[in-house]
């Protein structure tokens, strides 16, 4: 009863009636405070920095900044490279996840650990590692340069590669989990119906793990979109060619925090918009 | 070259070994009957190619498919919980096999539609498996398995996933469909009723071995193991016949026969042929044993009394008789069976 | 609640550490110096000698990009001294009223062309960087070394199309060390500190040198000690250390 409510004796008869009915209703269990309180603290922790950005944002100049060609260029580059990186991650990551989940080979545990390495090492180190491997004088890059005249660093392709490096592990882990959780007897059923292993994979396994692939792809896309360290190290920073939004944000930070905030908000708004739109399309998939 | 299925299945997993010979003529339905863990499902998976053999062979219409992968065997399988693909409609589930065999989409769907029609589910072609009842799902699974035009149809516990109320109807329906088929059919079940109704022949498997084979009526009449005897509701003993008396192996008891026999025999009599007495009955029937009550349970409208002693047996009596006898665990009783009720057949 | 308790404990520690902050040379104090990353080697050396001359005092450094440090100071980071790699960044701190007194320039850093060892592209001067076949990395104009580079290139009338505008001088240097670019404009001090790189001085560098200002901060917990540090950095002894590292003394 709220402090201001009238005492029970003074309640009109119909109110007393509803109160009696209420007394007969099965009481819900105690409110789950032990779960709700940490949940709300966790949510606040995630949302508060975002609120900080919103409060400090120079709203008046938001529109004009959005129209700046450098900003549009960086945004477009970010969206296209993150999408390309996600596509590459799916193309390579799903078979890799399948290999990890469905086959037994010596050293599989080691391979799985290796797959997660990019999640653990600082992205800048990842960028240096990419340079050492695929750079002009890198392990493989040296041959690419010598034989085909292909030099990857400082190109949009390098941006995509850096993003794939950091994003693909998220996809592999998500899909591997889905594959392990999938009921393999459906694959057996398909085999008894005459499906070759390839057909089983395409028409039975993949549809079964589609939610896992979708979730992994969204994680990978988000990770690729926010990627900074490996990109700036491996692909460098050049507006229109390799300067993605996070790089633009970082450099804007050097001059004026306000413009960095605006750019961050643009990136956040666009990525949230895309994720929400996708989520609506794949309801239940995530 | 023999038509139909000719197989000897040996699967050795160390602690468990399956070694069973199986045959089924085209159009014949063979039931693999056995307790859980007997190796029935392993046998079925081996026939489908989902399990490798350590020995033996699988021949279908004379063609050796022992080492062929599942997708290269002319085998259709209906799984216990049907395993319909949730992301495909009922029609596309059935069309899956023909598509794999190289049929075009339209052609496969037309074939699938004919099969769904045949199992009475034409109206559900576009339904998702989730929206189907258990019996409908089973018929879609059957249509899907038949769509590959199998030479061997395998059914794994086809009725186990259904509730008791729908089971009888689905069983009758399945029997009708199986009767129309021209391919060999092997079905696995642990339910004797399914086996009796659906199969032309029953193969009983226990602990990886075939222990009995025959027509359903023959198996029901002449069980050869305790497991089968319990399933068909008989007290079964093995012994040596001397004229009209059988000396039961491993027990200090004899069973009297209506007519003389010789050699190793089985003797069987139904629990309802047993009469129980607290006092030794007058007139002294030829089969009379002094036994001890082990337990009492309800059995339909009868009461089943488990008795132990020189000849352990089960007796079915009326609740009224139970009340009169005042049986309790450990209560000693006299059990009598008329010789005319005792069946005897060679071991 | 746990968090609150932990914060209270931290807060409780602070006065114990800084309790004796009144006297100029009372022992057991920590001087916090925020300095541009390019000062790392020299400041650490100077810090050891400062600790020897001020028994009981500990010098703690925060090395990072000047702009990052400036942002931290303007958001209230508890530092005593700030040494920036360019005047512009120091100005942003001074304008926010966060310096105590005028910043003083204590050292200057000139640009050099850094090339991979052996100089594979055969660079001899600034004009060579305009060659489209030469891969050049510059610092982004938002950071001090980039602003200086742009100034130098303007003064020389050389138009360069870099492959990358690096986020700081170390990143530019790394690209040279790994041979990913044929040349980069970096500070002389970085060339001396780098591995596998060679420096090529150029005339126009003098006009685009970076002045490094230093200032005691308005909210300094130990203002006396902070002033001592600024004096020490400007002393002849300290200037020798800077010269050895490649800086141009005041």
From TrEMBL, chain B:
BP terms from Gene Ontology: molybdate ion transport
Keyword tRNA processing: no
Family annotation (SUPFAM superfamilies): MOP-like, P-loop containing nucleoside triphosphate hydrolases
Keywords: ATP-binding, Molybdenum, Nucleotide-binding, Transport
Every Mop domain range: 282-346
Pfam families, per the entry: ABC_tran (PF00005), TOBE (PF03459)
MF GO annotations: ATP binding; ATP hydrolysis activity
Residue span(s) of domain ABC transporter: 2-232
PROSITE patterns cross-referenced by the UniProt entry: ABC_TRANSPORTER_1 (PS00211), ABC_TRANSPORTER_2 (PS50893), MOP (PS51866)
Entry protein name: ABC transporter ATP-binding protein
Protein's organism: Streptomonospora mangrovi
UniProtKB/TrEMBL annotation, chain C:
Signal sequence coordinates: none
Gene3D superfamilies: Periplasmic binding protein-like II
GO molecular function: metal ion binding; molybdate ion binding
GO biological processes: molybdate ion transport
Keywords for this protein: Metal-binding, Molybdenum, Signal
Pfam families: SBP_bac_11
Residues noted as binding molybdate in the record, renumbered to the chain: 38, 66, 169, 187
PANTHER family per UniProt: MOLYBDATE-BINDING PERIPLASMIC PROTEIN, SULFATE-BINDING PROTEIN
Family: Belongs to the bacterial solute-binding protein ModA family.
UniProt-recorded name of the protein: Molybdate ABC transporter substrate-binding protein
Taxonomic source organism: Streptomonospora mangrovi
């Amino acid at each position: 009863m709220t402090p201001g409510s009238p005492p029970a004796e003074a309640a009109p008869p119909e109110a007393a009636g509803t109160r009696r009915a209420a007394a007969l209703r099965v009481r819900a269990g105690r409110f789950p405070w032990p779960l709700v309180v940490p949940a709300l603290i966790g949510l606040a922790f995630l949302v508060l920095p975002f609120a900080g950005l919103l409060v400090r944002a120079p709203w008046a100049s938001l529109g004009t900044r959005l129209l700046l060609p450098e900003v549009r260029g960086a945004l477009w580059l970010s969206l296209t490279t993150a999408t390309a990186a996600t596509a590459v991650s799916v193309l390579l990551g799903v078979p890799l996840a399948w290999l990890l989940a469905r086959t037994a080979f010596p050293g599989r545990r080691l391979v799985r650990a290796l797959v997660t390495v990019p999640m653990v090492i600082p992205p800048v180190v990842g960028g240096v590692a990419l340079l050492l491997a695929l750079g002009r004088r890198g392990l493989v890059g040296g041959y690419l340069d010598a034989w085909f005249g292909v030099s990857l660093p400082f190109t949009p392709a390098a941006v995509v590669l850096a993003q794939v490096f950091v994003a693909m592990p998220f996809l592999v882990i998500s899909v591997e989990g889905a594959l392990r959780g999938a009921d393999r007897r459906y694959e057996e059923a398909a085999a008894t119906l005459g499906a070759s292993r390839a057909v089983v994979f395409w028409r039975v396994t993949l549809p079964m793990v589609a939610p896992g692939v979708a979730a992994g792809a969204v994680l990978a896309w988000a990770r690729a979109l926010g990627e900074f360290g490996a990109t700036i190290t491996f692909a460098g920073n050049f507006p229109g060619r390799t300067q993605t939004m996070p790089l633009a944000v970082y450099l804007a930070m050097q001059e004026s925090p306000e413009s960095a905030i605006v750019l961050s908000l643009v990136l956040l708004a666009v990525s949230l918009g895309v994720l929400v739109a996708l989520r609506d399309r794949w309801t239940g998939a995530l | 070259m023999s038509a139909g299925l000719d197989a000897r299945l040996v699967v050795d997993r160390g602690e468990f070994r399956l070694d069973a010979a199986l045959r089924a003529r085209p159009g014949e339905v063979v039931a693999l009957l056995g307790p859980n863990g007997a190796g029935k499902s392993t046998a079925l998976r081996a026939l489908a190619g989902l399990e490798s053999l350590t020995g033996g062979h699988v021949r279908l219409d004379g063609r050796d498919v022992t080492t062929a992968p599942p997708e290269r065997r002319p085998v259709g399988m209906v799984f216990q919980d049907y395993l319909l693909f949730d992301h495909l409609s009922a029609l596309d589930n059935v069309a899956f096999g023909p598509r794999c065999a190289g049929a075009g989409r339209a052609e496969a769907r037309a074939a699938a539609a004919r099969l769904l029609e045949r199992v009475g589910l034409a109206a559900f072609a576009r339904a998702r498996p989730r929206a189907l009842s258990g019996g409908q799902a089973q018929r879609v699974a059957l249509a899907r398995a038949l769509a590959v035009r199998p030479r061997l149809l395998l059914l794994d516990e086809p009725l186990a996933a259904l509730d008791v109320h729908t089971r009888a109807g689905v069983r009758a329906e399945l029997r009708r469909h199986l009767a129309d088929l021209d391919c060999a059919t092997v079905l696995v079940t642990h339910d004797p009723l399914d086996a009796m109704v659906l199969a032309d022949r029953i193969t009983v498997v226990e602990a990886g071995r075939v222990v009995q084979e025959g027509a359903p009526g023959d198996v029901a009449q002449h069980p050869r193991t305790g497991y089968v005897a319990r399933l068909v509701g008989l007290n079964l003993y093995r012994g040596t016949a001397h004229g009209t008396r059988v000396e039961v192996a491993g027990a200090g008891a004899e069973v009297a026969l209506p007519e003389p026999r010789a050699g190793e025999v089985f003797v069987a009599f139904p629990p309802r042929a047993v009469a129980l007495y607290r006092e030794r009955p007058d007139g002294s029937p030829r089969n009379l044993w002094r036994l001890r009550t082990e337990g009492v349970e309800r059995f339909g409208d009868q009461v089943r009394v488990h008795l132990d002693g020189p000849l352990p047996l089960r007796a079915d009596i009326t609740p009224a008789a139970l009340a009169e006898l005042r049986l309790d665990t450990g209560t000693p009783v006299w059990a009598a069976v008329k010789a005319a009720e005792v069946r005897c057949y060679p071991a | 609640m746990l968090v609150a308790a932990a914060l209270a404990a931290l807060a409780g520690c602070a006065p114990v550490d800084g309790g004796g902050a009144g006297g100029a040379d009372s022992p057991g104090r920590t001087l916090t110096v925020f300095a541009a990353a390019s000062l790392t080697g020299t400041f650490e050396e100077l810090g050891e000698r400062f600790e020897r001359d001020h028994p009981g005092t500990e010098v703690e450094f925060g090395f990072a990009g000047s702009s990052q440090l400036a942002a931290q100071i303007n958001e209230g980071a508890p530092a005593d001294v700030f040494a920036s790699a360019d005047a512009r960044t120091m100005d942003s701190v001074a304008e926010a009223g966060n310096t105590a007194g005028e910043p003083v320039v204590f050292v200057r850093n000139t640009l050099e062309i850094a090339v991979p060892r052996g100089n594979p592209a055969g660079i001899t001067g600034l004009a060579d960087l305009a060659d489209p076949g030469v891969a050049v990395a510059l610092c982004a104009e938002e950071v001090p070394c980039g602003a200086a580079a742009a100034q130098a290139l303007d003064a020389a009338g050389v138009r360069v199309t870099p492959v990358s505008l690096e986020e700081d001088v170390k990143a530019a240097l790394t690209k040279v060390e790994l041979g990913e670019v044929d040349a980069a404009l970096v500070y002389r001090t970085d060339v001396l500190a780098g591995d596998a790189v060679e420096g090529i001085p150029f005339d126009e560098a003098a006009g685009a040198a970076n002045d490094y200002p230093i200032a005691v901060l308005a909210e300094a917990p130990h203002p006396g000690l902070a002033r001592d540090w600024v004096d020490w950095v400007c002393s002849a002894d300290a200037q020798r250390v800077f010269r050895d590292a490649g800086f141009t003394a005041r």
